[in-house]
Amino acid sequence: MPKARASYLGMIRLQKLAKAKAEMKLARLNEQLAAIEEENAALFKMHDDRFEGNAVIVPAHIIMKRLELNKARQAQLAESMIAQRQELLKISRTIDTLDRRLQSLGRELERFRAADEMDEYMSHLQAKHSI
């Protein structure tokens, strides 16, 4: 049983590392999405500046092309984020399951120890009475 406990602890440790990795990926995806949104805001500002008579530095077709590319990239990031959240949820559930199994194993070990103590006590009592 100690091997089983060590195995559960090892699996939990590995799952927690996988969870941290998934959280880091999700954070990177969020950062990328935020950067795209920030760039889009700047592109819209450039586009608005064209109509307000300010100096035109970037042609409209380039701004629109970049906005289209950003829209496609946002869609890809959104799909990746959904998949990453699902992976994170799956890992969290696995950790919860392993924790429950580890707790169950601990209770089972306690029952075995208690049964061994009771057997030892009973054999000690029986040995006293047989003398």
Overall description:
By secondary structure, this protein is mostly helical. It contains 2 helices and no strands. Helix 1 packs antiparallel against helix 2. The protein is rod-shaped. The model has no long low-confidence stretch (mean pLDDT 90).
Short characterization:
The chain is mainly α and 131 residues long.
Estimate the strand proportion.
Answer: under 5%
- Helical fraction equals over 70%
Broad structural category: mainly alpha
Strands, count: 0
The first-to-last residue Cα distance is 36 Å
Q: Which consecutive residue ranges, at least 5 long each, have pLDDT under 50?
A: none
* Total of helices: 2
Summarize the helix and strand pattern as letters: HH
Q: Largest sheet at a glance?
A: none
| Shape, per Cα inertia axes | rod-shaped
Radius of gyration, in angstroms, nearest whole number: 31 Å
Mean pLDDT: 90
Task: Reconstruct the topology from this structure.
Layout: H1 2-51, H2 60-130
Helix pairs in contact: 1-2
Give a quick set of tags describing it:
rod-shaped, 131 residues, mainly alpha
